[in-house]
Specification:
The chain is mostly beta strands and about 450 residues long. Among the domains are: about 90 residues, Sandwich (Immunoglobulin-like); about 140 residues, Neuraminidase, CATH 2.120.10. It contains 2 helices and 38 strands.
Amino acid sequence: MYRYVLLALVLCLAVAGAGVVLARPPTPALAGPVVFEVTPSRVYNTTASEVTIKGVGFVAPPVVTLRLGDLSPIVLSQVTFVDYSTLTVTVPAETPEGAYVVSVYNPDGASGQTGPAGLTVVRPGDRRMRGWAATTLLPGGRSGFAAVATAGNVYVIGGFLSGTADRGVFRATIGPDGQLGPWQSMSQLTTARGGSVAVVSGEYLYVAGGAVAVGIPTERGIERARIGADGAPGPWEVIGELPGVRYRAAGIVVGDCFFIMDGITTSLDTSGDTIRARIAPDGTPGPWVPVAPTRGRSTSAASAGSAIYVLNDDGTIERTRMNPDGSLEAWITVDPTRVNHRGGALAVFQGSLVVLGGAGGTFPNTYSLTSVERADIRSDGSLGPWTPAPSLLMSRSDFPAVTWDQWIYALGGTGTTFPSDQAVEFSGPALPPRLYMPLVARDWLS
């Protein structure tokens, strides 16, 4: 034993005497650049903006691109190599709004990129509408909920928690500045449901149809709750049934007429029609009768006077008018929007039809939109040309939008940034010119 120890010691001394150094194994080199962050992470598209990219492994001269889903990437022409960990780039004015992946390519082709919302390009507030601002988060991550606004409150009804329907109903009070107060739990639905239609008529909230789980249409029942003087809904009660199951339909109340457009009746049947029930003075819906059907399958609806508008699941928008007898004129497809807003939301706001968000791209490269567009509503219900409006703070699809007084809200949905399923944002009338830029900048970029 001692001989082996002595032999090992002699060998070590011999190596040292010969000047041989036992080196550590080499640290493996990076396979390519790694991107840590982009600052600022949001920029306006009204002017060119310089942003800084931090990471490691950058090699001159790099190529930097902005990518949105399956669209062709935007190659940035002004890129400055500072050192192996820092780049500065210029995002040109009029870059389309959206939540972009930022990619860095070294000369050897190795690349690194940010997450799906490394840089968000936004359109700021304008002379008619202020930039969007964040407000109180929704309680818990839920999808497929319905939402309405009335009497100075926003209500969130039902929805899915981890894919299973929920009975929860929540209310938030709208403050004088548009900000929402805390969400308060209200009396629960009698039946758990998501993907349902919710409307307000008089002093009642109504919810109809839906599903017990995501993608499984099951519900045809109609419930209602009376809104108290304090804005809190009373107990929910079953008040009738639809002619059949309806899931992810669009609904609207015009006068005393409750319309439901399209919806999924079974997992395999996505064909639709339009039905109407008159609401009696005591708040009871009458029998459902068919009226003029839409051309597509509607997922969101809005109204202005007797004019009704729907957004279809393919991004087309249709309009009609209600006749005095409650029937509908034939639906007309309006001019297409600048961007396809399938999966978005529709609202009437400040005398305009507004379409918000939605989804672009094809699977598996789909992405949610921040784009918002508006068209002025003419006296006959027709629309003026579509123009860009201030873009959303967060990209989102499959979400509701509601309006009350001078405020418009976008709630939850699917997006590329956390916490899109809980995030709520709002906009309102344009700010006074002297205050406009500082306040909008603080809303968006703080």
